[in-house]
Design brief:
The complex is a heterodimer of chains A (about 525) and B (about 210). Chain A is of the alpha+beta class and about 525 residues long. Chain A folds into 4 domains: about 50-150, no CATH class; about 165-285, no CATH class; about 295-435, no CATH class; about 485-520. Chain A has helices at about 1-5, 30-45, 130, 250-255, 280-285, 360-375, 425-440, 445-480, 485-515, 520, 525-529; strands at about 15, 50-55, 70, 75-85, 90-100, 110-115, 120, 125, 135-140, 150, 165-170, 185, 190-200, 205-215, 225-230, 235, 240-245, 255-260, 275-280, 295-300, 310-315, 320-325, 330, 335-345, 380-385, 390-400, 415. In chain A, strands 20, 21, 22, 23, 24, 25, 26 and 27 form an 8-stranded mixed beta sheet that branches. A 7-stranded mixed beta sheet of chain A has the order 6-9-3-4-5-2-10, with no helix packed on it. Chain A starts with a helix and ends with a helix. Chain B has about 210 residues and is α+β, with helices and mostly antiparallel strands. Chain B has 2 domains: about 1-45, no CATH class; about 45-210, Butyryl-CoA Dehydrogenase, subunit A, domain 3. Chain B contains 7 helices and 8 strands. In chain B, a hairpin with a 6-residue loop joins strand 1 and strand 2 (about 20-25). Classes of the chains: A alpha+beta (about 525), B alpha+beta (about 210).
Chain lengths: ~525, ~210
């Protein structure tokens, strides 16, 4: 206490410590470390930054800047950074930050598209995006030309990510129910899809790009036929009702089937990109191609009801062509009405093969000679009913040796071939004939004679009736005679009994005489006694 | 403040920074130890300005990645997302949630930058021997020192969120690289405040008075 109160208490002396003089404080290591760490982070950030690309979309629906990813085979390789409208407000321009080392992917034919849930007849895709939101899919091109600006596809491509197989090109005039993604069938096995289709510039044909998966692409040869197996193909034709389908799937969404004719030569697999014709149906696909189609005209002086363009023209059951056109025509001089039917024939289908090399003129001459010969032998066209149910009619060529003579006038165009009335018409004609003959009969006279005869007969009958009455009396008498209780009958009975008794007596006598022959001389012994 | 009182240094005495004991410096040595608590004694915190500068510069360097790098990586079923502090502020900004957004903005962006700027101002004025606004500068220092400890709140919130929200595979939250830099900013500014000797603020005033007689 005394010390504390004492003024100016001497302050304690600090203990001396040997000090180190440092000119530079070690604390400077800290900002250096901080700077290094910052620089390292910055460098790694810059290093990990890939190329920036621009993608143009028609709509940014479901896309979000900073969130929407670009995926390839499910791997995130980029993120959209900005989304903005294009200058003319028609498109959406998005920039994307790609992952590092993706420069190789960003080439000329790389495609981008928005993956959204998509439910079509053929398949359901992108269901995952219902939860995760849309993302951008991509297909990496094989070009070497690098690119940074892309236009997104409207619909995702059907074949993604270097699937093994081959593309082929199909040409068709009618798309039917085909669409991208429509399945391709080979022997009813789904082996591919329609990748894309577009209308040709001239608007005449559709060019379809189809993809056939490996290993089935090897079955596509230059000889392969493709046809539309769309839905149920119900065909009402001269040959009846045919229903053709590939599978339940194709009934719902359509499809394309292909097959290689077994008869043809075995060919190597077709090159990728080979163009094929897409036929309307299987039947058409397997018809031998009409290589030298020729147009002829047939004039039928009868109804062509039931005949339609496309109806078959056959020769003894083998189809050799088809009806191209049916038109009515009137001759204004004679007012004669006729129906010229234009047909297209291909003699090759008849199995006529031209062997050897002939020029066009030679071929033409041979063709004329061939047809002239046929006509001379009685080849005529005739309308025949192919199907009684549908009334479909077809044109048949056949040899009618009894047909009136005809020649082919080659100066006409198209050339007219001789016809003969159809079966139905021929039948009608013969019935008419019969009726005519019937008409010619002298029925009146026959009737008169008949009436005369009948009157005579009447008289005869009356006299016959008298005869019959007397006949009946005779019969009655006879009847009375043979009646059991009649007098005659009783008498007859009595007489017969008498006769019977007499006969017995005679037998007794005969017996006795046999045993006693002497009785004939001596008389009965007993009686004598 | 017309601080006319002579400082301990002026009368050749050292005060202990730990227990406050005033003592005469040890003879013949630059450094002495407090006879009561054995803490190293010095007239002023050794290399105060240099250290503060070092910490401050380190903090300023770290402040850049802290704001540019994501602090939280949120992985949900719908995809993963990483947000920086500023993105978080934007995300929280809504007609009803703006106070929260404002808190994050103030606590995580404005306060650290204000601290760095305030310390820089103090350091520069001290180095230039400014004699004005001594009291205000001291208040500023005290405020910075007071706020410093609360800056860690952000880091805590993030780490707690990361620790609690681990609903694999539905959702998980992970701290991003920005968070480490943000924590470094907080720690470094606190160290800078700690190494700054506020007595330097009025040393210049005292020196001027001595010179003026």
């Amino acid at each position: 206490m005394a010390d504390e109160q004492a003024p100016r208490t001497p302050l304690p002396q600090a203990r001396a410590v040997a000090g180190r003089q440092r000119g530079f404080s070690l604390v400077w290591i800290i900002p250096i470390v901080a700077a290094l760490a910052g620089a390292w982070v910055a460098v790694t950030r810059v290093m990990s930054e890939g190329p920036k690309i621009t993608i143009t979309f028609s709509s940014a629906e479901g896309l979000e800047a900073g969130k929407t990813k670009i995926q390839y085979k499910g791997v995130d390789i980029g993120t959209l950074t900005t989304i903005q409208l294009s200058g003319d407000h028609h498109l959406v321009r998005a920039t994307a930050q790609m992952a590092p080392k993706t420069e190789d992917f960003l080439v000329e034919n790389t495609h981008f598209w928005v993956v959204r849930p998509r439910i079509s007849g053929a398949n359901v895709t992108g269901l995952g995006t219902l939860i995760s939101g849309a993302y951008i899919g991509m297909e990496i091109g094989d070009s070497k030309q690098e690119r940074r600006s892309f236009v997104a596809l409207e619909t995702p491509p059907v074949i993604i990510g270097g699937a093994l197989g081959r593309f082929f090109v199909l040409k068709t005039s009618d798309l039917g129910s085909l669409d991208t993604g429509t399945p391709l069938f080979f022997r009813r096995l789904q082996v591919g899809r329609v990748a894309s289709y577009e209308l040709d510039r001239d608007g005449q044909f559709f060019t379809l790009k189809v993809f056939v998966r490996a290993p089935y692409d090897q079955y596509v040869t230059p000889n392969t036929r493709f046809w539309q197996a769309s839905g149920i193909d119900v065909n009402l034709s001269a040959s009846g009702i045919t229903v053709e389908t590939q599978s339940v799937l194709s009934i719902l969404i359509g499809g394309i089937a292909f097959e290689t004719p077994a008869a043809g030569p075995v060919l190597p697999a077709a090159q990728a990109g080979t163009t094929f014709t897409l036929y309307e149906n299987r039947k058409q696909a397997f018809e031998p191609p009409a290589r030298y189609p020729q147009t002829y005209q047939l004039i039928f002086n009868e109804s062509v009801r039931g005949l339609a363009p496309g109806a078959p023209v056959d020769f003894r059951g083998i189809q050799i062509g088809e009806v191209a056109d049916i038109r009515a025509q009137m001759d204004f001089k004679t007012f004669e009405f006729s129906v010229p039917v234009t047909i297209r024939l291909d003699p090759q289908r008849l199995g006529v093969k031209v062997t050897g090399n002939y020029s066009g003129a030679d071929l033409e001459a041979m063709r004329r000679k061939f047809i002239d010969t046929l006509v001379a032998h009685g080849a005529r066209a005739q309308l025949r009913t192919g199907n009684l149910l549908t009334g479909a009619v077809y044109v048949a060529f056949d040899i009618f040796p009894s047909a009136p003579k005809a020649t082919v006038d080659w100066s006409q165009s198209p050339v007219r071939l001789p016809t003969i009335p159809g079966q139905l018409q021929a039948t009608e004609a013969s019935i008419q004939n019969i009726i005519n003959k019937l008409n010619k009969m002298p029925l009146q006279q026959i009737g008169d004679n008949l009436r005369q005869t009948l009157a005579d007969l009447d008289v005869t009958l009356i006299s016959a009736r008298g005869t019959l009455v007397s006949a009946r009396t005779t019969m009655d008498n006879a009847n009375n005679f043979v009646e059991p209780n009649s007098l005659q009958s009783q008498e007859l009975d009595a007489t017969l009994q008498e006769v019977s008794r007499a006969a017995r007596s005679v037998r007794v006598l005969a017996d006795y005489l046999e045993r006693h022959p002497e009785a004939l001389i001596r008389g009965k012994k007993g009686a004598s006694k | 403040m017309s601080a006319t009182a002579a400082s301990a240094m002026q009368v050749g005495l050292q005060s202990c920074g730990s227990c406050g004991l005033l003592s005469r410096p040890a003879a013949g040595a630059e450094f002495g130890r407090c006879p009561r608590c054995d803490k190293t004694l010095a007239f002023r915190k050794p290399a105060s300005l240099q250290r503060t500068w070092a910490y401050l510069i380190a903090a300023a360097v770290c402040y850049i990645p802290a704001n540019l790098l994501p602090v939280l990586n949120t992985t949900t079923a719908t995809g993963s997302e990483s947000d920086t502090i500023l993105q978080g502020v934007v995300l929280l900004w809504s007609p009803t949630g703006w106070p929260l957004s404002l808190i994050v903005l103030i606590a995580s962006i404005m306060i650290p930058s204000a601290k760095i700027l305030a310390l820089g101002y103090l350091l520069i004025t001290v180095q230039r021997g400014s004699v004005r606004n001594n009291a205000e500068r001291l208040k500023l220092y005290r405020t910075v020192e007071f706020i410093g400890r609360w800056s860690m709140v952000d880091v805590f919130v993030d780490t707690f969120t990361a620790a609690l929200i681990q609903l694999q595979p539905l959702m998980s939250v992970e701290p991003g690289p920005g968070l480490f830099f943000f924590a470094a900013v907080v720690v470094l500014t606190m160290l800078a405040v700690e190494s700054f000797d506020p007595r330097l603020i009025w040393d210049a005033t005292n020196l001027q008075e001595v010179e003026n007689g």
